[in-house]
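Researcher: Quick test of sequence recovery. Tokens follow.
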């Protein structure tokens, strides 16, 4: 029986056990997936004990993603470029680290808005770890004009330096000008997260055919997405990113590539409703 996990600190609100438990039941597989809370000071010991405790691998979320990168023997190309690991597995006794956030981001847009990547210009709000995954994903899809906006422009400049040609760093106040020509607008910050309701972005100068997406998924319709909809812009919520990023790990641990279905989405929506006090971690 394959065993897998998700770990973070805190981790009690993770929805990953619901996702993977649904797939284990759907495919009639013998296996388990559980949430394990590990404090930062205990993470290295936890990772070193995985094989001894019979784990095939697992997911890693905040604040352990960079530590998981450092502790992995090998990395997939996405993790190498992003500098963070959210999925662990073993290959011939070696601990491998991957990053599926970029895959989840594009798979969600592919499902919700086919053809979203025809125009290769984007504005990305935020310069943290999630932004790194989004920028990597966009570069993989051939985007050659990615405008990173952050309240601390120095952090955006770090991503410009990291990812090179086609990436530019900008101050928050430049948003009105940067909206011109941006076919895709991505929020990777906490703006609109429950408890932080101020979208703080005026989309009135956005291109009329722009697509606005938010990696925040609680609430499902963030203030930014609501404002975009009121302006007649296309939108894509962030729940699908959570669901799709789980697919590669499940396949590695349990040997079956699962599908993201309406039934799975409905399961997570039912868990989120009628009200969630905070955005839950992966």
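Model:
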């Amino acid at each position: 029986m394959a065993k897998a996990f998700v770990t973070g600190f805190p981790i009690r609100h993770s929805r990953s056990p619901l996702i993977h438990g649904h797939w284990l039941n759907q495919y009639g597989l013998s296996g388990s997936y559980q949430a394990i809370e590990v404090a930062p000071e205990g993470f290295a010991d936890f990772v070193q004990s995985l094989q001894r405790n019979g784990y095939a691998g697992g997911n890693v979320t905040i604040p352990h993603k960079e530590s998981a990168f450092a502790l992995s023997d090998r990395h997939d190309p996405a993790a190498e470029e992003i500098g963070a690991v959210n999925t662990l597995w073993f290959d011939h006794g070696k601990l491998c680290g991957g990053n599926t956030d970029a895959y989840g981001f594009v798979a969600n847009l592919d499902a919700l808005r086919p053809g979203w990547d025809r125009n290769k210009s984007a504005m990305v709000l935020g310069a943290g770890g999630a932004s790194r995954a989004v920028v990597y994903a966009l570069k993989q899809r051939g985007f050659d004009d990615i405008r990173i906006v952050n309240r601390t422009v120095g952090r955006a400049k770090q991503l410009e330096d990291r990812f090179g040609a086609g990436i530019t760093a900008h101050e928050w106040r430049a948003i009105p000008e940067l909206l011109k020509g941006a076919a895709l607008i991505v929020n990777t910050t906490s703006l609109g997260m429950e408890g932080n309701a101020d979208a703080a972005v005026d989309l009135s100068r956005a291109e009329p055919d722009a697509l606005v997406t938010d990696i925040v998924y609680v609430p499902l319709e963030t203030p930014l997405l609501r404002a975009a909809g009121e302006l007649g812009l296309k939108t894509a919520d962030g729940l699908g990113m959570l669901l799709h990023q789980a697919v590669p790990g499940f396949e590695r641990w349990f040997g079956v590539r699962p599908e993201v279905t309406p039934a799975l989405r409905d399961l997570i929506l039912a868990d989120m409703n009628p009200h969630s006090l905070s955005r839950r971690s992966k």
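Residues 275-282 have pLDDT under 50 and may be disordered.
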